[in-house]
Amino acid sequence: MSHPSVRRPVVGIIGNMSLLNESYPVHAGGTMNSEAVAEVAGCLPLIIPSDPRLVSVAELLELCDAFLLTGGRPNVHPSEYGEDETPAHGSFDRCRDAITLPLVRACIERGQPILGICRGFQEVNVAMGGTLFPEIRDLPGRMNHRMPPDGTLEEKFALRHPVRFTPGGVFHHLMGAEEVMTNTLHGQGINRPGARIVIDGTAPDGTPEAIYVQGAPGFTLSVQWHPEWNAAGDPVSRPLFTAFGRAAAEWAAGRRPALARSA
Q1: Burial of 36 by CB count in 10 Å (0-12 exposed, 13-18 middle, 19+ buried)?
Q2: 3-state class of 109 per DSSP?
Q3: Which secondary-structure segment (H or E) carries 16?
Q4: Closest CA to 189 of 143, 233, 141, 131
Q5: For 189-211, what is each residue's pLDDT tens digit?
Q6: CA 118/CA 160 separation, integer angstroms
Q7: Which one, of 206, 130, 118, 131, lies nearest residue 164 by Cα?
Q8: Which of 13, 22, 95, 163 is a Cys-bridge partner for 51, taking CB atoms 3.0 to 4.6 Å apart?
Q9: What confidence tens digit (pLDDT) does each residue in 131-188 have?
Q10: β 161-165/189-190 pair status
């Protein structure tokens, strides 16, 4: 006699618009994101075509239990935080902006879990009213956080600097350490934190690296580095994705935060 399988929580992985072979448009997600969601978080990875012509935030909230806000080469458009576009801001994906920013706000209000990575970390800050620096390495006293232009994937995602967490804070408790080593592959970073954004970890040059939303009823941890790389083997990535998976499972099981139940 066969037994019904237990449904894994569904994690919507925000896809990025890109060109395959420089001509064929695709919505894509890195394999390492799907592997981290499936193998470490224990969830079902589902790549989302982040385009408001194709999907709506309301549909995504019903379909998925949690969301992984991935990194991506295009940046959040500066008009989303009240600034003019300049060449330093790089390229953009306005369709992704139109999906992820309202999605972040809805998840925070509902208590539905989100995990922000790199661009996703920046999206959480912008969604809450914060601003971004267009190029961290141009600021006095800051290091170059960008991905090395050459080398293997292992070399590009190698651990490059420490991140120090607030003693006794959320990330300190999660990681079991006040300081950890991370990779770094980003050009932009937080300028002004958004409303309720708590900066819980920083790089040695003061660049914000770990945040959460104060008073949010659900999981809102976000990081500026890329924990999806070697997520199963890295002592920093593994607890982050494990905790995210637990939060997704709670939501899938119908165990809602008090605020979400009263909404």
Answers
A1: buried
A2: helix
A3: strand 16-20
A4: 131
A5: 999 999 999 999 999 999 999 99
A6: 15
A7: 206
A8: 95
A9: 999 888 877 888 777 777 777 887 787 788 899 999 999 999 999 999 999 988 878 8
A10: unpaired
- Around Cβ 143, how many Cβ atoms within 10 Å? 15
Residue 115 in 3-state DSSP? strand
CA 240-242-245 angle, to 5 degrees, is 110
Q: Any idea which of 12-16, 21-25, 86-90, 92-96 has the lowest mean pLDDT?
A: 86-90
How do strand 222-223 and strand 114-117 relate by DSSP bridges? parallel
Tell me if 9 sits within 8 A of 65, measured CB to CB.
yes
Write the secondary structure of 197-228 as one string of H (helix), E (strand) and C (coil): EEEEEECCCCCEEEEEECCCCCCCCEECCCCC
Residue in the structure block whose two tokens are 């008009």: 79
pTM as predicted: 0.92
Structural domains of the chain, with CATH: 10-262 (3.40.50.880)
Write out the two tokens for 37: 């969601």
Residue with tokens 């894994």: 8
- What distance in Å separates the CA atoms of residue 178 and residue 206, rounded to the nearest whole number? 15
